[in-house]
Amino acid sequence: MIELDGLTKQYRSRVAVDDLTVTVEPGRVTGFLGPNGSGKTTTMRCVLGLTRPTAGTAHVLGRPYRELARPMRRVGALIDPRARHPGRTAHAHLLALAQSNALPRHRVDDVIEMVGLESVAHDRVRGFSLGMGQRLGIAAALLGDPDVLLLDEPVNGLDPEGIRWVRELLRDLADEGRTVLVSSHLMSEMEDTADHLVVLGRGRLLADLPMDELLGAHAAVRVRSPQAPLLAAALQRAGATVRLQGDGSLRVDGLDTADVGDVAFEIGVRVHELSRVTASLEAAYLALTGDDVEYRAAVP
Amino acid sequence: MSRGVPFGALLRSEWTKLRSVRSTWWCTCLYLLTVGGSGWLAAASTDSSARAAIAVQTALTGFGIGQLVLVVLGVLAVTTEFASGSVLVSLTAVPRRTRLLVAKTVVVTAWCLLLSAVLAVVCALAARTLTAVPGGVQPADPEVLRILGLQVAAAGLVGVLSVALGAVLRSTAGAVGLGTALVFVLPPALALAGGAVASRVSQGLPALRVGEDAFLAVGTTWPVGMGILVAWAAATWIAGAALLERRDV
């Protein structure tokens, strides 16, 4: 369990995290979403005691991270896949970490096998790709078999097989009752991984809700009829927002499928298709963060 | 709640970090070659000496330059963590930062002491075999032992100072530069500049050779020289620990 209470981090002129109050529950994968620069990494650093908050508190398992006696047994973290000495081997990197928390030596080989780096375990990490660095970082996070996992953009740079592996790993860890907080700016990733979402924009909390709810909130009804103009007019009278889609179907916001069916029946138009479309997470996310993107490319 | 990690575990971890990078071994080889080599050369080119202490002192000349390698070794042990970002992982694993710095300092200093002790023996042997001294260089000669002990202790303190500089500045170039200036460039430069003030300042800097034979700097008595070196190492280390605790990474 991770509890943030009024967490605020201010750099000279910029507020990176603004009065964030969130509880990350165990037993589910919590997706931590937000555009670049929205404060995800800063929040995670504050949780891990790497960055001192300007105000507010971050507690892990009921206490500040710095007070954990053997932190790696309780919390595993991946903050930066490049955070490693380039001249050290993967094995030595993990061994030094295991020793620092008095973890049994065999855990090093266990996690190397778990992330599939056996063949390069004794190579210097200088030549590791971003994906291999991610695997090494995940191995380090898993070393102490922790109750809480914080992973910052863990699938960045992974190949499709690796992405699926991380997804299944997170699922399994959450099913074992652990707390899993995983950040990403790739919404499509979260759609298949997370049960719950915490969305940030410019350091502020935009949403803290179950995945289904976010998708449901942005759901619409798709209806196709040979008498579309008639139906559209009737739906608008019933209070819906209706848009004609490129394929000739209507997208109806503001009414559910039953209402749309009833309206069609009342005015006697034929309906060839009637379905509920859940918004992609991408669309839901853009709707949510539209005004809160820190860095936006200029549109010429 | 389980008890904290035993300090020995931290020492093992820091030793793994130190031994698993090449720079440590480059520095070690360079240190052994420079100090051992110049010790033998100095002893070989000194045919005779009035006292055993002087013969040994001469053979230890190489420490003057050689300890610069220890500055690099100690600084790198800290600054490469910041340069590579691995400090994020280290401080996540060991959030008690001062404890981490203590462990690192102990390991680096122990390594400096071990290497320097071996070299001190090698240099003393060189003096004993190559320099003619009335009565010979006796291993139990208290003056000889004091000189060797001081040299080894000074090398250990240079290790502490270098780790501390790394923690204060976090940058390899900055810390090696400042370390070199403090122990190697400024003391002789100020000594050469002459004048009472410059001499005083030169004496107050942590020069590499402690005692009367001050390797180009202005000499002091050994207790004063040792006191100055201890003070520099301790003050810098405390500053390094305080900054490490306070600053974000």
- Helix and strand run of chain B: HHHHHHHHHH
Tell me about the largest β-sheet of chain B.
Answer: none
Strand/helix succession of chain A:
EEEHEHEHHHEHEHEEHEHEEHEH
Number of helices of chain B: 10
Cα end-to-end separation of chain B: 27 Å
How much helicity do the residues of chain B have? Answer: over 70%
Category from helices, strands and their pairing of chain A: alpha/beta
Task: Give unreliable regions of chain A as ranges.
Answer: none
Q: Which structural class best describes the helix and strand composition of chain B?
A: mainly alpha
- Largest inter-chain interface? A-B, 36 and 35 residues
Number of helices, where a helix is a run of at least 4 consecutive DSSP H or I residues of chain A: 11
Query: Could you say which overall geometry of chain B the principal axes of the C-alpha atoms support?
Result: globular
Low-confidence stretches of chain B: none
Helix content of chain A: 25-40%
Major sheet details of chain A: 6 strands, mixed
What's the pLDDT, averaged over the residues of chain B?
90
Say how many strands of chain B there are: 0
**Structural shape of chain A:** elongated
The oligomerization state is: heterodimer
Kindly provide the radius of gyration of chain B, computed on alpha-carbon positions and rounded to a whole number of angstroms.
Answer: 19 Å
Number of strands of chain A: 13
Question: Layout of helices and strands, plus pairs?
Answer:
The complex is a heterodimer of chains A (300) and B (249).
Chain A: E1 2-10, E2 15-24, E3 29-33, H1 40-47, E4 55-60, H2 71-74, E5 75-78, H3 90-100, H4 106-115, H5 130-142, E6 148-152, H6 160-175, E7 179-184, H7 187-193, E8 196-201, E9 204-210, H8 211-217, E10 220-224, H9 228-237, E11 241-244, E12 250-253, H10 257-267, E13 273-277, H11 281-289
Parallel strand pairs in A: 3-7, 3-8, 5-6, 6-7
Antiparallel strand pairs in A: 1-2, 1-4, 8-9, 10-12, 10-13, 11-12
Helix pairs in contact in A: 3-4, 4-5, 9-10
Chain B: H1 7-19, H2 22-44, H3 52-59, H4 63-84, H5 86-93, H6 97-130, H7 142-169, H8 172-193, H9 196-204, H10 222-246
Helix pairs in contact in B: 1-6, 2-3, 2-4, 2-6, 3-6, 3-7, 4-5, 4-6, 4-7, 4-8, 6-7, 7-8, 7-10, 8-9
